[in-house]
């Protein structure tokens, strides 16, 4: 069987490799090239070196968006994973209606980002109405509004992944820990966490990447207001490329930097958490 697979490997891999090349590698390569050009359309691109990157990093909107996105990502990743893990621990106990709770908690993940943004925009504005304020009155409202929205959308999804990991822990390990006199905290640190490291790896990867490249929800909830103070990186790139005449190359340069940052963060996180999986 292995010989047959090896013999026909190229045949089966070719369609996927071809699709990956056409849909990702070629467009990405063209995007990198255009980041070094001044252009309005692909056909009239003129190479200008690193000028676009210099303009990108001298743009205060880009720097502010990078800081805002980094802070938002840190807060969201921590809160989503902690709350999702707590819910997962509770819903793997003998509680009536756990399947119903799991379904209800997961449902927000099925709603589109634009719809979620507008829903939470109305909810938060309704809460702030008695105080004569809206979500765009102050950047703090917008920041925590985005955090709440992201938590509401992703906690249920991460919870399901944590539940899967917790349910795969051998009861014998927990029983042996109890016999040895381990406390609840000691079982959590020395048994549960090491055993669910694959789930932690997946959840951290998903929350990191989704938080850092958030666009739909940011656009619908605050659109960067007030004064672009709540503008995240993806929205800043969009506004640069489509909203500023002659800045298409700069927008493309920002997109390349954005891709490198996301890839670097994701690969670093995967390396660190997978090394813990090996140790466990």
Folded structure, characterized:
The chain is an all-alpha fold and 280 residues long. The chain contains 13 helices and two strands. The chain has a two-stranded antiparallel sheet with strand order 1-2. A hairpin with a 7-residue loop joins strand 1 and strand 2. It is globular and about 70 Å long. The model has no long low-confidence stretch (mean pLDDT 89).
Tell me the layout of helices and strands.
Layout: H1 2-7, H2 9-34, E1 37-38, E2 46-47, H3 51-57, H4 60-90, H5 98-106, H6 113-128, H7 139-167, H8 171-179, H9 184-195, H10 197-212, H11 216-221, H12 233-243, H13 248-279
Antiparallel strand pairs: 1-2
Helix pairs in contact: 3-13, 4-7, 4-10, 5-7, 7-10, 10-13, 12-13
